[in-house]
Amino acid sequence: MLENETERLIRNVEARTIGKNQSVSMREILAAEVPHPLKVFFRSDVERILNDELRRTRTHSRFDYSNGEVEALQRKMNSILVLNFSFLREEFLQKVDDGVHLVLNLLVRPQWTLTSFIFHTNASASVSDVKSMLAYFGGHEYLKEILLRYIDEKRLESLTMNELQNLLLRIDGEYIRRKEGSELARMTGPIYEFINFSTPPAAPAPHAIPVQTKVFVKFFEDKRLRLICEVLEQHIAQRGVNELTMDQLGEILEQVRRTNDEAFIPDETFTKKQSALGVAPESPPVVETAEARNERPSSSQSFERQQLIQPVREKRAGLPDLNEIISNRDRRRIIKKIFRRDDAQYSAILKALNAMASWKDASVYIDKLFIANEVDPYSRDAVRFLELVQQRFTSRNASP
């Protein structure tokens, strides 16, 4: 899903910015005809690079950089430095790939993406870190604005992953609760605009160009709107409606609202399906200080620190060994994409999964693994790993 659209976007951004050149400045990126959320992504990343550098140089300084006049001058200097920052070609092309994938994930699944991005290594984050990471996102501004306002009003100093998940669910729930069908459809506007950004000048407006219906299933899954997801899936399965314009989506949503007054109220028990979205960032940018990067443990240590490695029990009789189910080809790709080339962690996780007696336990365990390793659960590799593990519990050799 969206693989072709993603590749088209990346090619167009490359052509409109760096072209055949060996470098491109931040000023040129901001002046280029590329989607606004990508400009937000690039500017925030450059500001993060600059702030990290300034923090390192001031660690043991005796000068008072907190002086009001100094801070005012520093802000002006920072703006000039950011605008004149240059990316070398290979670095820029990798950033474009990361940025397009990250923005698409944000637009389609904002709650999941924000949570995964902010808590990429830890179960809690300071408000300062949360605000720094929120600066990367230029879509669904209402979520960011309401979240920041809540943080300031409550004078919070930190947030846990569960607290942020609950906050985002509440914000979305209150925001959409009293919406009409057409209003709820307009919330998907950023998706239409981003996916259809590179259409020819004579083409219709972005919202009039259809987008895959499955994209909106994912969008409403993220908001836990069970009934809407079921209706959209019925349109795909029974009517063959594989694409929708914004107006068509609005008509469907309005029909759902009139049929059920509670259709736009999130169902917190609604479990998302593990199916591919196909827009996963291979390595999302990490927003952290140099000190944090130096102190960050390996993925295996981080995973164990979160106490996700369960006590190993003897393998249940009748269930096959995952090492026999997973081929060498799958194994190499899974270690690279899911376990960040960490063979030791891969072996430890398989050992723990082999000790489990039910698919339910294994799926919950894998969900935690994906969060800890920043893996998109809808990516091709994540779905493949889930399928292989599930085979262990559905195999004909498994005892009932």
Give the SSE map.
Elements: H1 3-16, E1 23-25, H2 26-31, H3 36-58, H4 68-83, E2 86-88, H5 89-108, H6 110-118, E3 124-126, H7 127-134, H8 141-154, E4 158-160, H9 161-176, H10 181-186, H11 189-195, E5 211-212, H12 213-222, H13 226-239, E6 243-244, H14 246-259, H15 290-295, H16 299-305, H17 322-325, H18 328-337, H19 343-354, H20 359-372, H21 380-394
Antiparallel strand pairs: 1-2, 3-4, 5-6
Helix pairs in contact: 1-5, 3-4, 3-5, 5-6, 6-9, 12-13, 18-21, 20-21
Structure description:
The chain is mainly alpha-helical and 400 residues long. Among the domains are: 1-87, no CATH class; 181-259, no CATH class; 293-394, no CATH class. Helices cover 61% and strands 4% of the residues. The chain is built from 21 helices and 6 strands. It has helices at 3-16, 26-31, 36-58, 68-83, 89-108, 110-118, 127-134, 141-154, 161-176, 181-186, 189-195, 213-222, 226-239, 246-259, 290-295, 299-305, 322-325, 328-337, 343-354, 359-372, 380-394, and strands spanning 23-25, 86-88, 124-126, 158-160, 211-212, 243-244. It has a two-stranded antiparallel sheet. A two-stranded antiparallel sheet has the order 3-4. Strands 5-6 form a two-stranded antiparallel ribbon. α5 crosses α6. The longest helix is centred in the first third of the chain and has 23 residues, at 36-58. The radius of gyration is 23 Å and the shape is globular. The two termini are 35 Å apart. Residues 274-317 and 396-400 have low confidence and may be disordered.
